[in-house]
Prior knowledge:
It is built from 21 helices and 6 strands. Mean pLDDT is 93; it is low at 1-10. The chain has helices at residues 3-6, 24-30, 33-36, 40-56, 62-80, 93-105, 107-110, 118-154, 174-199, 218-224, 234-239, 242-268, 296-319, 334-357, 362-369, 376-385, 390-406, 416-419, 430-433, 436-442, 451-462, and strands at residues 159-164, 167-173, 201-202, 229-230, 276-277, 359-360. The protein is mainly alpha-helical. It has 3 domains: 24-110, Fumarase/aspartase (N-terminal domain) (Fumarase C, Chain B, domain 1, Orthogonal Bundle), CATH 1.10.275; 118-367, Up-down Bundle (Fumarase C, Chain A, domain 2), CATH 1.20.200; 368-462, Ribonucleotide Reductase Protein R1, domain 1 (Orthogonal Bundle).
Amino acid sequence: MTIQETNLSMDKLWGGRFTQPTDRFVEEFTASIEFDKRLYRQDIRGSMAHARMLGRQGIIPLEDVEAIVHGLQQVLEQIERGEFDFSISLEDIHMNIEARLSAKIGEAGKRLHTGRSRNDQVALDIRLYLRDEIVEIVTFLDLLLDALLTKAEANLDVIMPGFTHLQTAQPILFSHHLMAYVEMFKRDRARQEDCLKRVNVMPLGAGALAGTTFPIDREYVAEQLDFPAISRNSLDSVSDRDFALEFLAASSILMMHLSRFSEELILWSTSEFRFIELSDSFCTGSSIMPQKKNPDVPELVRGKTGRVYGNLMALLTVMKSLPLAYNKDMQEDKEPLFDTIDTVKGSLKIFADMIGEMRVNEVNMRRAAGLGFSTATDVADYLVRKGLPFRDAHEAVGNAVKYCIENEMDVTELSLAEWQLFSPYIADDIFAAITVEASVNARNVPGGTARERVWSEIERCREGK
């Protein structure tokens, strides 16, 4: 026996037209079972529906259908007990299950593949799997939204500095800041739910690329699998991965939101800010510095965002030049998809728990809200209400701020006489107008940071609006 012969597999799947077995390394390189075995439930469910349809249409005997369904149930139970040995030589989850089925029930198992191809079978499995996972991701998003709303309700009177360019801008309610993320994650939920509409289309029946010569009933299979629609073009059915790309894109945006939030939690928990304290359960220490409490969870979520972006780019690159219909390249759709699902679910779950246990430092937030001339805009608005054009008011307040900088003081420390150096419109009612509380509650417009408006938004979200 030659070295080459020892590297060859003696059994070749679908090998009728071949004169040589598959090289063992090629066999391992092309196999997908190590990652697509997680599709086993969906593959078995789809096969059961397909078998019932074949029997209903008189394509295979009803006694074979009964044997197939019973056998597939046994295979499912065996996998879930951890007693199923997946074989690389059988390439993928479809062939592993079908081979085990045939070993159990004999000739009837070989009839299961009538009227379908692995091309439309895998398209079905991925859609079934992603459909289930999107529903779970939406559930995790709801948990995070609930945690944010609960934290916003509990801290409705906490004032913090709002930032632009990471510079103190204007005072806002901490709850208002949290509600900004509520809006982001609501959009993420809507994107996932909208993506589900494109996922929830039944491709089985497309065959390899052109349909099948058997009188199948695609609508019946769709009904069995709870699909509201069937795909309308067999070529597109087996070569479409738009639904997966759309999910990856929506998930990338979701992770971007989590990453932005992570960055703020990291900043807020530093000794320089001390706005919040994360629970010890979500932090780690240093191997050399005993005083350290590192925000590892938000840092890791921030880092994992990059891998989700990479998964999107990976699948876009796989699909960008593929001719119709199916190509082996498309086997590379699963690992980016699975990794993204796992990353998003894990990140959402840990974030919801972390926000629930986060402690808010109201005193430090309130103190910081009064720094950096945060109520300067309120002075300008005060002057406008007194009759001064806004551009003139802006210049007058700018001069006042410059004066404060030169004298190392804040605008709240100016006397009435000093205020009147910059505008004769200013009277002693200026002092009540430029507190951080007055600044926050003056912004009583839809979407504003006034307590009344923030509470109204919390209630609206609680009602599912």
